[in-house]
Specification:
Strand content: 15-25%
Number of helices: 11
Bound molecules: pyrrolysine
Structural class: alpha/beta
Helix content: 40-55%
Largest sheet: 6 strands, parallel
Shape: globular
Radius of gyration: 18 Å
Order of helices and strands: HHHEHEHEEEHEHEHEHEEHEH
Number of strands: 11
Oligomer: single chain
């Protein structure tokens, strides 16, 4: 996934309430319901999970290109907004791990340039951001569409998030058309899903994104491309789930679709990570 920059995150803390109201208006579900739906869809049991009983440590990591200004803060704001007891460790890296253990964190969240993980220190469960983001966005799209069962979804991108989203979307009963610039990647993803999916769903590879976009009414944009979907390729009814940055819709398309566009830099992924990471824990006490 593309590395976030401070500008992607600067407004997140102050805007979290308005973001959640907007999400509810668009999908009929708020951030908590989407995260719960994503966790349930992935087969987790979350009955009577009370966020307020869990301690979440967010640990800055200085490896590789180093920390991103606002990243730990953004993650902690999402966790706090959902009701978890959350803190950013005073130290980064190993010092932060020690602090999380010493303060008896239930979950620690940390990211280097390759992986962003939530690690449940009590059960050992590890949830990565790509898997959680895919599940969370599929659940949000399902809410927004009413149901994806039997609906055709154009999935753009068969990479880290797209391949996991293909799984989550087929579990929700969607008929997938998969496009990736690397046709072999799209083909092997379709073949993998077909062999893994018990119930017959229709999946096929699109040869050309423009043709596929012309007839798509539901789009899951999991590609790293910026602005390649034009205003002419969407209409007043198109539903779009676009995890992460940059956004595949150009400004015309974004204006047209805005009321039916799910797109954020971290919120849905972080919320789903937390609920999936805690799925093993029965609420203490
Ligand atoms: C997890 C995000 C979602 C999209 N791109 C991913 C990204 O930017 N990864 C890099 C995260 C680096 C965090 C840095 C810090 O501030 O702790 N190591």
């Amino acid at each position: 996934m593309t590395r976030l920059v401070p500008d992607d995150l600067i407004t997140l803390p102050a805007g979290i309430e308005a973001y959640d109201r907007d999400l509810l208006e668009k999908t009929g579900a708020n951030l908590e319901q989407i995260a719960l739906g994503a966790a349930a869809g992935a087969g987790f049991n979350l009955t009577n999970l009370h966020p307020g009983k869990y301690k979440v440590a967010v640990i800055p990591v200085t490896s590789g290109l180093g920390t991103i200004d606002g990243f730990a803060k953004a993650v902690s704001v999402v966790a706090g907004y959902l009701g978890f007891q959350v803190y950013i460790t005073g130290a980064a890296d190993v010092g932060g791990l020690i602090e999380a253990y010493k303060r008896d964190a239930d979950v620690m969240m940390l990211a280097d340039d390759q992986v962003f993980a939530a690690i449940n220190l009590k059960s050992g469960r590890v949830v990565d951001n790509a898997t959680a983001t895919a599940a969370g966005y599929a659940a949000a799209l399902n809410f927004m569409a009413g149901s994806l069962k039997g609906r055709e979804v154009l999935l753009i991108g068969a990479g880290q998030v797209g391949s996991r989203a293909a799984e989550a979307l087929t579990v929700l009963g969607a008929n997938l058309i998969v496009f990736d610039q690397n046709k072999a990647a799209a083909t092997s993803l379709v073949e993998a899903i077909i062999t893994r999916t018990p119930s017959p769903v229709s999946l096929r590879v699109a040869d050309d994104s423009a043709d596929a976009l012309q007839s798509a009414s539901i789009i899951f944009d999991a590609s790293p491309g910026r602005g390649f979907i034009s205003g002419k390729q969407v209409n007043e009814k198109t539903l779009v789930a676009a995890p992460g940055i940059p956004l595949g819709l150009n400004s015309d398309a974004e204006k047209k679709v805005s009321a039916r566009l799910i797109h954020d830099p971290l919120q849905i992924g972080v919320a789903t990570m937390l609920y999936q990471a805690l799925a093993d824990l029965r609420s203490p006490g």
